[in-house]
Each structure stands twice: as structure tokens, then as C-alpha cells.
Design a protein that fits this description.
8-stranded parallel sheet, alpha/beta
Length: 263
């Protein structure tokens, strides 16, 4: 059984076939899908998707690319949502030093405040780290949280080791499947397997075989197969390990009753 640790199944790109996409994922062996929010406006959509689709589990947070339209009272809404909904993490939160223009001061404030929320609620975090890994790590050293996942990791081996020291897992998905992503593929091949979790980030970051088409969680088995090939391992061993890693770093994840055990 596979776990997609990062998938925006609430996104508009799935409005026409969300239920069918979930069914395809289940048939492909994806037993759990973590659905993170990006702003207060979609807290409700994420919660609704996770109530309606038995393999989906919610995370709530405000994405760095959405902080410019966030308001301070959204933090109160986040806390209230966490009291009401069975969240497995705070996310998607973090920093993004790629987008232009950007308000770095606002991003930093929201990142720090949401780390405090994670600490207060005892929840791990799903981190957006694009071109901001050192600053992300600095925030984690200032505010200790119960681990989490560096989503779409694309940093150095040294940065990966720092996340691992802090109790984090590293998310690998479609980007790893592109043959020209040589540095990322080297990381996927050589990092300790116990530090890796799998994700799609659907509908974004499509794997190599999709071109520019929409990504979806049913692609996760082929992504796992690429990781197995890069590491020279049996794909079943990669599936078992990454699933165990996800359950370990997101301890509030629970399988649907019909999914059974990992045995």
C-alpha cells in the first residue's frame, strides 16, 4: 500500500472527476492521500474532500504564495479548524524565494506563526521550501515542531542531512522521474531510504511520462518504481519502506477500514 503524502485533490483541476481520480488511485494501490490546504478560503474544501473520500486525510495551513491575501485573523480560523477537523499536519506552509514579486517579510511572519501553531497543537508540518531551504531550517531551529516533511525536496545532501537530524522526511515525486534531473536523482538514489516519503503534488509536478498533462495520485506506483530503479531495489521494498516512513512522520494518519493492514 502506498501513501501520497502531498496531493491537492481539492483543486479545481479535479472538479470534473475527483471521485474517479480517487478510485483510480485506490485501484493503483494508493491507500492514503494527504490533502493540504493553501489558504483559509479552501480550508472548507479540503475538509469536505476528506470527509467524502475515505482515503483522504487533511492538513491545514497557509501557503507562502498566498500570504499576501491572508489576514491575521486567519490564524484564529486555522486554530479553530484544527480543533474541529482531524488534521494530520499543518500545511502547506513555508517560504518561496522563486516567485516574483514576493513579500519576504510577510512570508517569514506567516511561516514563524504557523510553526508556533504546529508546536502548540503537537502536529508535524508539510513544508514548501522552494529556494529557501536554509531559511526554512533556521525557523525549525528556533521553533521546535514534531517533525514533518520537506515537500518537493530539491536541495543539497548537506541540507537533506540537516532536515533528517531534525526528524524530518524528504518528499520525492514527479520531478525525480525526469532523466535530466541528475542531482535530484542522485539524492533519491543515495539518501537513507528511511528518510524518504513519496508524493505527487497533483495536479502539479507531473512525472516525465505525462509531459505537461495533469498529474494525479494514481501515478504514485510508477513514481515508486522509478525510485526503486534508481536505488537498485525491489519496488515492493520501496513501497513498504516509504509507507512506514509516512506513518512514522505523520502519526495521526489512519488507514480506511477497508484498506486492512500493511501485511
Amino acid at each position: 500500500m502506498l501513501i501520497d503524502t502531498h496531493c491537492h485533490l481539492d483543486a479545481a483541476e479535479f472538479d470534473a472527476d475527483r471521485d474517479e481520480a480517487a478510485v483510480r488511485a485506490g485501484r493503483a494501490g494508493v491507500a492514503l492521500i494527504v490533502v493540504p490546504s493553501v489558504e483559509r478560503a479552501n480550508f472548507g474544501a479540503v475538509a469536505s474532500v476528506c470527509r467524502e473520500l475515505p482515503q483522504c486525510r487533511p492538513a491545514f495551513g497557509i501557503h507562502p504564495m498566498y500570504v499576501e491575501r491572508a489576514r491575521e485573523e486567519d490564524l484564529d480560523a486555522l486554530r479553530e479548524t484544527l480543533r474541529r477537523e482531524p488534521a494530520v499536519a499543518i500545511g502547506e506552509i513555508g517560504l518561496d524565494n522563486f516567485i516574483e514579486p514576493r513579500d519576504e517579510k510577510s512570508q517569514s511572519w506567516w511561516y514563524a506563526e504557523q510553526l508556533r501553531v504546529a508546536r502548540d497543537f503537537g502536529l508535524p508540518v508539510l513544508l514548501h521550501v522552494r529556494r529557501a531551504i536554509d531559511a526554512i531550517l533556521g525557523g525549525l531551529r528556533r521553533t521546535v515542531v514534531p517533525g514533518g516533511i520537506a515537500h518537493a525536496f530539491n536541495g543539497s545532501r548537506q541540507q537533506a542531512d540537516e532536515f533528517i537530524k531534525l526528524g524530518f522526511k524528504l518528499g520525492f515525486g514527479g520531478a525525480m522521474t525526469h532523466p535530466r534531473a541528475t542531482r535530484l536523482r542522485e539524492l533519491a538514489a543515495t539518501l537513507p531510504l528511511e528518510s524518504i516519503v513519496l508524493e505527487t503534488d497533483a495536479p502539479d509536478i507531473p512525472p516525465d511520462w505525462l509531459g505537461k498533462a495533469r498529474n494525479e495520485p494514481a501515478e504514485l506506483p510508477r513514481i515508486a518504481a522509478v525510485l526503486a530503479e534508481l536505488r537498485g531495489m525491489d519496488v515492493g521494498d520501496v513501497v513498504a519502506a516509504t509507507t512506514a516512513n509516512a506513518l512514522g512522520v505523520l502519526p495521526r494518519l489512519t488507514f480506511p477500514a477497508a484498506a486492512g493492514s500493511l501485511a
